[in-house]
Amino acid sequence: MPDGEHHPERRKHPRLERRFICRYRLYQQGTGTTGGWQLSTTKNIGLGGCYITTSEPYEPGSVLELELQMPQVGGVVKIMGEVNRCETGKSGPQMKIFGLGIAFLKVDETKKEQFAEVLAALIERQNRN
Questions:
Q1: Domain that holds residue 50
Q2: Contact (CB, 8 A) for 126 and 118
Q3: Scanning 16, 25, 55, 92, which has its CA 20 to 30 A from the CA of 31?
Q4: pTM exceeds 0.70
């Protein structure tokens, strides 16, 4: 697509343009998690996924364990997500930044309903402004 044209929207759920602190780590099917926790923030989030920045690239199809800090739902929301895309962002001499589009595979059952309600309310408020 030429510059300036918009890509068709493929998301099933609207996104909230808001930063939430999150921790993430790679999850290996069968063996469980690998590596230590890394910190990031969401750039945007919806019921179906989120976009975060990282200091290392992840291949599409990689599964990440995420812990979102959401005070509105009583603290941490645990989520399993799959990397849909990895974009190279700004970089400097010491560090590269990557953007990850993540599709949610599973949201903590104990907070799933409240998570959905809070997101819906915040998205509605965002759209009014």
A1: 21-128
A2: no
A3: 55
A4: yes
